[in-house]
């Protein structure tokens, strides 16, 4: 089975969407499927408004059609709502071809954090975008409930997994920093709420992994914090595994893959009790959720690293890939019937 995934988020970006898609592509091969990506590569681009550091691909209908037809996919999935996603959506609708989408970023909340745009306006635009899909995949039950509240239909589950061979306690390196070490990983941008973590009065050291438009601002505000820049795969795992607590300060992420990666490294999670953290660690013994993030951080120090690892072992990418392929096969079957 050949699947074409259209995405505006792609390398060299380092974020949960890119890591999810690249890992998915590796995993589906176990099930006899292949994924080809239609990305901004090869298209001219301009800076993305309201999102410093990212760019917007300038697509054209002819090349989009050529790339899709060259891939000869059995199923098409649109992972993002940017210009690539819009162009592929237009292609599918014009040819009456079914497709799936996924809702991976809480864009209305991100946008309202930057500009005075009502969330209802953004949700209306996104609802229209996804309404044409046979299935819109979401990663958590709470996100499904939220989108249902905003009028989204045809929702299906696509959970996330963690690569337990890359992210594991044995990769820990020695960090020459005072203990305990509190670490966070993610795009250094206003919507990630990293300053809420860095402003806390905590013992030991704070470490930030990632880059983004707020990086220099936070460096200047918090000179005692260790900023490591972007790290990937084994290097990321080795630094996360070296920490004592993983702090997830975001209040807008739909899931937060980095939480599972930290748990696989044997590192407990401290977070606010919001969508994402509630779905990953709510009701478990591997993290602490509290409106007082400092309280959560200090309490997480008492959590067993072994328990964190054991929890992560139950969250495999095989399950995630099987869910994704189930949705893809349903539209491939409907396409074959139409032919």
Give structural notes.
By secondary structure, the protein is α/β, with parallel strands linked by helices. It folds into two domains: 2-161 and 317-338, Glycogen Phosphorylase B (Rossmann fold, 3-Layer(aba) Sandwich), CATH 3.40.50.2000; 169-312, Glycogen Phosphorylase B (Rossmann fold). Helix content is 41%, strand content 16%. The protein contains 14 helices and 14 strands. It has helices at residues 16-28, 61-71, 83-94, 107-114, 119-131, 141-149, 194-198, 215-221, 233-241, 257-264, 277-281, 293-300, 305-312, 317-338, and strands at 2-6, 34-38, 45-47, 55-57, 75-78, 100-102, 135-138, 155-157, 181-185, 205-209, 226-229, 245-248, 269-271, 287-289. The strands form three sheets. The chain has a six-stranded parallel beta sheet, sandwiched between helices. Helix 2 (61-71) crosses helix 3 (83-94). The longest helix has 22 residues, at 317-338. The protein starts with a strand and ends with a helix. The model has no long low-confidence stretch (mean pLDDT 93).
């Amino acid at each position: 089975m050949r699947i074409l995934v259209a995405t505006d988020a792609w390398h060299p970006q380092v974020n949960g969407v890119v890591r999810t898609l690249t890992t998915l592509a590796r995993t589906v091969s176990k099930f006899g499927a292949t994924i080809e990506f239609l990305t901004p590569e090869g298209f001219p681009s301009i800076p993305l408004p309201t999102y410093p550091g990212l760019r917007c691909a300038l697509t054209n209908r002819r090349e989009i059609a050529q790339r899709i037809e060259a891939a000869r996919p059995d199923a098409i999935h649109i992972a993002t709502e940017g210009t690539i996603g819009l162009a592929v959506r237009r292609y599918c609708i014009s040819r009456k071809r079914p497709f799936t989408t996924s809702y991976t970023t809480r864009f209305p909340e991100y946008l309202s954090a930057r500009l005075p745009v009502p969330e209802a306006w953004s949700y209306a635009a996104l609802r229209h975008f996804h309404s044409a899909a046979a299935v819109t995949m979401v990663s958590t039950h709470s996100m499904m409930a939220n989108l249902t509240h905003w009028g989204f239909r045809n929702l299906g589950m696509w959970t996330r997994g963690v690569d337990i061979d890359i992210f594991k306690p044995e990769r820990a390196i020695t960090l020459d920093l005072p203990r305990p070490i509190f670490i966070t990983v993610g795009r250094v941008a206003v919507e990630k709420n990293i300053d809420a973590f860095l402003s806390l009065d905590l013992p030991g050291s704070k470490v930030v992994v990632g880059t983004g438009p707020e990086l220099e601002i936070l460096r200047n505000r918090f000179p005692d914090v260790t900023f490591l820049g972007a790290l990937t795969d084994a290097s990321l795992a080795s630094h996360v595994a070296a920490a004592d607590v993983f702090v997830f300060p975001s209040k807008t992420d739909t899931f937060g893959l980095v939480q599972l990666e930290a748990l696989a490294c044997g590192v407990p999670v401290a977070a606010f009790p919001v969508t994402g953290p509630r779905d990953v660690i709510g009701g478990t013994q591997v993290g602490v959720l509290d409106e007082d993030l400092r309280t959560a951080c200090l309490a997480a120090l008492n959590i067993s690293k072994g328990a964190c690892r054991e929890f992560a072992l139950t969250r495999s990418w095989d399950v995630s890939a099987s869910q994704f392929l189930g949705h893809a096969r349903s539209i491939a079957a409907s396409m074959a019937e139409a032919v």
